[in-house]
Amino acid sequence: MIPQLHRASSTSNVLTYLYGPGWGGNHTDPRLIAGDVHGASIEQLAGPDSLPDVAQALREPVERLGASAPKRQAWICSVRSDPGRPDLADSQWAAVARRLVAAAGVAPEGDPDACRWVAVRIQPRQMYVVATLVREDGSLHNAYSDAFRLKRECHVLSGEMGHQITDSYPKLSDEETPVAAPPITITHEFSGSVVAKGANDDLSARLLKHAGFQQTEDWYGRRHRLPTTTPVTHKVAIATHAAEMLRAAHYTVDLSPSLDTARKSPPAHPLGPYAAGAELLQVTERIRAAENGDALERAVDHLLHPEYGALEGVREALEAAGEHINDLDDEAYKLADRFGLAADLVSSAQSELVSSAQSELVSLDAELRRVRPGQQPRIETRTRSPKLPDSRGAALATSPAAAKAKVSSTLGAGTAGSSPAARPSPVPEPRTR
């Protein structure tokens, strides 16, 4: 379960967008599922023509402040569930919304002056919580640490729902954090980004963030990486600086030689920012050159590997783009939402392909073993016609039907290479003068 926090200047504009068709018509059956507006009940505001009433209910505390109201008074939290898990019912999403607004301090349970908020379900696996930052007593909610609190609560919720194993979620503290036992490895990924692995405690996370690494926390856990668009010289400088700080804090750091300024600097890729695309073309060539199921499985693994695969890299890039768009412009939540949706679609496709590809390749391999006996490659080599073109011969060689036909004809003709049990014993013939 992944939350993303946004800010906007108008709750009315946000609600209009949520109740609309969305980008490409992806908002399917938008509906109000929970909320607290300190007045009308949610059942009364959940009607098809109640959008103006919902917007007015959220606006009232802001209008009471008049000119002293904050410019960006809309608090928006979009939440997506794990695409690899069953979706939640409206009642479950409503419970999640209440937990989130309480954890963030927007609407603590039992607070009569809490901020007004509503939860809107716009499509499967996604919900929006929209609130006004003006409390009922005229004070403003301090949203400084909301993002961390939301991520922590979503982590706890995912564990309660069985979506991931939760031990103890890291908490920000000013106290010294014990050094983690596992060493930290900083290296290049297949996608071209630089990652730091093994940094699971707060101290190492802070040092990596200070050096310039971006931290992401989702259902895969905490990760640190540099975007693939980071210039090569900057990657080397950041990785080296991070390793120096970590070693000074008594961490064991394994730094890739290509990222160590004291040892070696990586050469710039000839395609510059399009190096990732060139790598994908190489994967395409490996797939086309696969001659059997094993080779195809190894080639496809470059796409579907859950941590290093190309699809996982694309998913993370799309997700990071949505987050960065929101960092640059809080009002661009529509565009950020598009990238988040694209990341979910890629993740769903990856999960589906991994399960189906594994089952299909295993089935194909089993079928080939049944059709081709152990001696088949030797028989096929001896009986293949030299007149066949290479491409046709390769096609027949990989065809189970053709292979079976060749075995039958070879055995029937009694050619060399037949089974010893079927070969007649030699009988000497009389010599003729």
Protein described:
- The chain has 433 residues and is of the alpha+beta class.
- 46% of the residues lie in helices and 13% in strands.
- The strands form two sheets. A five-stranded antiparallel β-sheet has the order 1-3-5-4-2, sandwiched between helices. It has a five-stranded mixed β-sheet with strand order 8-9-7-6-10, covered by helices on one side.
- A hairpin with a 5-residue loop joins strand 6 and strand 7 (194-197).
- 29% of the residues are buried.
- The model is unreliable at 165-181, 372-402 and 405-428 (pLDDT under 50).
Which band does the percent of strand residues land in?
Answer: 5-15%
Strand order of the largest sheet: 1-3-5-4-2
The residue ranges in which pLDDT falls below 50 over 5 or more consecutive positions are 165-181, 372-402, 405-428
Helix segment tally = 14
- The count of strands amounts to 10
Mean pLDDT: 76
Helix content: 40-55%
What is the molecular shape?
A: globular
